[in-house]
Request: fold
Amino acid sequence: MRYTFIIPFLIMLVIITAGCSGLSSTAAPSLKSDTWYPVSGFVDGDTFRVKTGDQETTIRLLYVDTPETKKPDTPVQPFGPEAAAFTKQRLEESGEVKLSFDKETKDHYDRTLAVVELKDGSILNELLLEQGLAKVLIVEPNVKMENVYKQLEQSAKQNAAGLWSSGNETSQTELPERKVQPIGLEMKVDKAEEMVTITNTTFESINMDDWKLVSVRGNQTYTFEPIELPGQAKLILLSGTEEPDGLDAEALLLEWEVDNVWNNMEPDPAELYNEKNELVALWEDE
Reply:
């Protein structure tokens, strides 16, 4: 009698396991930052869809917000249709997009948050800001491009572009930008030589374990292994294919295992964050 009960139970277990396996195989594939994805649909100025295998994934532009056109119980906002038309046209012309991400990759609607690169090398998020068809929207912990995007918005505002033409709009740009925590570090970047120099101006050692250096425009991040920067000492981080001449022989020397990190065609600020994600040094590429 005992065996007649166990056998049906095992059969049920096999069926359930097979069902779970089938569900997991149809889960949406994870998006990668080094892949071109076909555009498969449009929603509005800051939302569209891409093809991922035999499925679609909804993309929400990161750091920006365009005027509403389809939000329930909300009237169509000024320059909303223009933003939607601009996004649709640029995506149709590109056909495919490449995505990059910040810390959180999903919003509360389960949309993928991304910076969107077009085939011509331009960034859709930035184009919308430059045209005055979007405002900056920063939601922590996604803050990597905050300063750069606020600067783009401020330029559009000064030019009275798009939605700024009325003179009545307000934005996050009017709030203070993130400030550097003064701990005695100075940072300089030689973009041509692909060299970052960080100087400890204090007399105390600084533990840089798990700190992050960000190439803002290039959207690349270097994470420091356990290392201490002694007082009055320098640290040099190289990302070029050749070592520059005349390096400080007493400086700590590190190698970024990615070549040609820094953008030499456009401003590319550098930001240094400690293990608490506090901005502790900033190099403005002006």
Remarks:
- The chain has four helices and 17 strands.
- The first strand starts at residue 36 and ends at 44.
